[in-house]
Amino acid sequence: MARGNALPDIAEQRSTKRFLISALNICLPILAGLFIYLWYRPDTYLSGYVYRIIGRTVYPSDSETSIILQFLRGYAADILWAYALMFSVSAILGTGKKQMWAAAGICLCLVTLMECLQLTDFVSGTFDLLDILFESASTGLAVLIIHLFERGKTK
Amino acid sequence: MTRFSKILCLILVLSLFAAMAIGSGSDSSTSSGSGTETKSTSAPATEKDESPVIAATEAPAKTEAPVKTEAPQSVEAYEVGEGKVNVYKNSIGTYWAQVCVPVTNTGSCDLYLSSGTMDLEDADGHLVDSLQLVSVYPEVLQPGETAWYYEETTLDNEPASELKVVPHVDVAKAKVKCIRFDLSDVTISDDTFSGVKIVGRVENTTSKDEKMVYVVFFLYDEQDEMIGSAFTILTDGVKAGEKVGFTASTFAAPDSVTADKVSRYEAYAYPMQLQF
After folding, report:
1. DSSP letter string, B164-229
2. ipTM of the assembly?
3. How confident is the prediction for chain A on average, in pLDDT?
């Protein structure tokens, strides 16, 4: 009887743990990406909206152009958001092998589509192949982490 | 989760991320940097926690919210406030014109202001004089701050009518970093003959020696009107971490500008920074 009650408890604990890990892997990169945009990219719509809401800018007026700073400004937020997107989609579709491939495919399609739209007037920005490469790598990293997490759970 | 719910959630998530991607696009439509002329003479934008504004006396400074344009998300945006020309006669009968034009950074990036041209016109719009290379302080302007094009110059004759200024300012996005030094032990007093003298210390808080340091004060009366400017250049420079005394004074301000008329001041101390 006691053994019968313990199994649902373990399943519930695993479910809660999965939810928490997914939530963290979605929320933290989104917030970090948002912070990067607010701090280093005041020229974006997003920063403008937030500046308007909070009534001031948070741009540090740092005109240094180190490689790290350029990377942060140009790619870091997109990388973090692509990572969060993969976790979001896999949380919806599931973490089976087929579902993971589907999730990764959807993410890569969206990433490529959004970047290609920058070639048109529909979305502002500059088309950059490196953006697609970095975001694809980020999606791949998310797939790997989810896979490792799921494998660790089943052992 | 049913198939329908999954599809719905997926659409929502993808839409959210697509919106985020669109939102992170550059707002190029509002980054032209064109200044907008306004007729308002708002109080200088002063954010106590950011700007190097120091209260001059015990009298509380009028601190209104920073001037914001309709589109604070724009990269380069500024407002040229209503300039004023104050004509006065000094003790030896020479007519002087004090010309002040405020420029407020209403954007979200630093601006670099270069010297400008100020056309003086009479009430009928006739050109009376044109002042070239009018200095502006500070040169690097942070978002929310107000710089002043300021000049005191002699006039050939007494103007027949009130003069007004038509400013031609030179503003660009700053490529140089905004550097400001701390001021302390500031005291303000009447100068020996006329005008105002300000004594204090400036501290180079950076790790770099500076060869030429500007210290400028904008003086405000009880009505929060800018009534004059005191200024000095420390040509001996200030080494990194060093604290050096200075004396700034008005050049040829109206006799009405005295220490007791000064209700508050804005102070800027910064190294000479050129931008090409």
Report:
1. EEEEEEEEEE--SPP---EEEEEEEEE-SSSSEEEEEEEE--SSS-BS-EEEEEEEE-TT--EEEE
2. 0.76
3. 80
